[in-house]
Amino acid sequence: PRPLVQVNEPLYRLLVRYDTPLNSFPSLHLALATYSACVARAITSGSLRHWLSLLLPLWVALIGYATLATKQHYWLDLPPGIALGWLAQWLAWRIGPRRNAQPAAARLAAGGVQ
């Protein structure tokens, strides 16, 4: 748990006021990092994709460590955050294109409104 330290910094006091210890499950820090990593890997190709496949898990792990080191999360919050980020990107890539099958560029080329 986050230590109970009195801080005179107004913005930090505001953060602590709204970011209570019960506001940690799942880790949205890791959900966003995982989602971003999955999307970055999905939209790249070639050697860049290879390097991202190696570096992005490290980036997500470092964010996970930072949330633990700064007492923002418990270790039990991290796996569900990763799962939530992965699920969000999976749904975005599986369900999203069905709603709007024609890409925006094709709609613009056809004279349609974006």
Report on the structure:
The protein has about 110 residues and is mostly helical. The chain is about 65% helix and about 0% strand. The protein is elongated and about 55 Å long.
Q: What topology does this entry show?
A:
Layout: H1 10-18, H2 28-42, H3 46-69, H4 78-94, H5 96-99, H6 104-109
Helix pairs in contact: 2-3, 2-4
Core attributes:
single chain; 114 residues; mainly alpha
Q: Give me the count of strands.
A: 0
Radius of gyration: 19 Å
Fraction of helical residues: 55-70%
Give the SSE string.
HHHHHH
Mean pLDDT: 78
Number of helical stretches of at least 4 residues? 6
Given as residue ranges, the uncertain stretches (5+ residues, pLDDT < 50) are none
